[in-house]
């Protein structure tokens, strides 16, 4: 009996995609079912207000959503260009031995636990931020964003590098035929052809940043207020979930963690759909 390897691969990948989709749907359904009593009970839509003050019965989590977006976007704004610059250096603008060393360093950074970054930042970065900004405790939006940019840097850089490496092999002869140097081939041929990989790296970096718990919990200050300045102490949705689950399981604040989980999932899905839309627009343009 002969086996069609392509057919087996198609069935396997299709089944994997189906299982993954069902798992995501199950997670969202679980969160929705547990969040529904919050809206149908006494709190209603007040859970989506802008004030968190449990002593007065106010459980609005919108400031935490804003804090999550601010920290994640600032980390992405810092980390994505740096990751792109490192990949360009590895693939063309640095000597090959230096590029290989950088690549080994990036791979090693992916093995560092997040708590190591946070612990080091408390003793090294927080005092610098406190003295440099001249206000606040140093546990702030800026501190968390800086460390998160370092946390997501290896993931984004390795995704970019994987795409650049394959594209460079495919376009090497084209660049040589045009008389391009290695740097010119990278700039004029490889980078434009790696648009999908660059956007995929941004999506992964954003998801990693907005979903991280320890860095905001350790470095953002955990103040449930609207972010208005880089030195403000803030509380993200993930830090809020961690704090409430660690200290409470019966009060009205407990229901807010499920609403926070739904919001995090919706934000990630929205970002993914927007990036897919950008890719399709670029392909049809």
UniProtKB/TrEMBL annotation:
Its main location: membrane. CDD domains: TM_PBP2. It holds the Pfam family BPD_transp_1. It is found in: Cell membrane. Keywords: Cell membrane, Membrane, Phosphate transport, Transmembrane, Transmembrane helix, Transport. Residues 61-275 form the ABC transmembrane type-1 domain. The chain crosses the membrane at residues 12-39, 59-89, 101-126, 138-160, 198-219, 252-275. The keyword Transport applies. One of its GO terms (biological process) is transmembrane transport. It is a multi-pass membrane protein. SUPFAM superfamilies: MetI-like (SSF161098). The keyword Transport applies. GO terms for cellular component: plasma membrane. InterPro entries: MetI-like, MetI-like_sf, Phosphate_Transport_Permease. PANTHER family: PHOSPHATE TRANSPORT SYSTEM PERMEASE PROTEIN PST, PHOSPHATE TRANSPORT SYSTEM PERMEASE PROTEIN PSTC. Belongs to the binding-protein-dependent transport system permease family. CysTW subfamily. This is Phosphate ABC transporter permease. It comes from Desulfovibrio subterraneus.
């Amino acid at each position: 009996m002969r086996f069609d390897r392509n057919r087996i691969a198609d069935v396997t990948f299709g089944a994997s995609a189906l299982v993954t989709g069902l798992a995501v749907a199950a997670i969202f359904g679980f969160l929705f079912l547990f969040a529904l009593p919050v809206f149908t009970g006494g709190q209603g839509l007040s859970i989506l207000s802008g004030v968190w003050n449990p002593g007065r019965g106010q459980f609005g989590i919108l400031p935490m959503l804003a804090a999550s977006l601010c920290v994640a976007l600032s980390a992405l704004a810092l980390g994505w260009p740096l990751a792109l610059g490192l990949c360009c250096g590895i693939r063309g603008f640095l000597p090959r031995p230096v590029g290989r060393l950088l690549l080994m360093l990036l791979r090693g950074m992916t093995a560092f636990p997040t708590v190591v970054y946070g612990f080091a930042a408390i003793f090294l970065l927080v005092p610098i931020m406190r003295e440099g900004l001249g206000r606040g405790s140093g546990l702030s939006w800026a501190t968390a964003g800086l460390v998160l940019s370092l946390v997501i840097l290896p993931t984004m850089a390795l995704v970019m590098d994987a795409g650049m490496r394959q594209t460079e092999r495919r376009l090497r002869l084209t660049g040589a035929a045009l008389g391009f140097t290695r740097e010119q081939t990278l700039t004029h041929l490889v980078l434009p052809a790696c648009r999908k990989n660059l956007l995929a790296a941004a999506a992964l970096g954003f998801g990693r940043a907005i979903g991280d718990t320890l860095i905001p919990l350790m470095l953002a200050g955990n103040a449930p207020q609207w972010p208005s300045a880089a030195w403000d102490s803030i509380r993200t949705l993930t830090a809020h979930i961690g704090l409430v689950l660690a200290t409470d399981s019966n009060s009205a604040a407990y229901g807010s963690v499920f609403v926070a989980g739904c919001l995090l999932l919706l934000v990630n899905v929205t970002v993914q759909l927007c990036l897919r839309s950008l890719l399709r627009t670029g392909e049809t343009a």
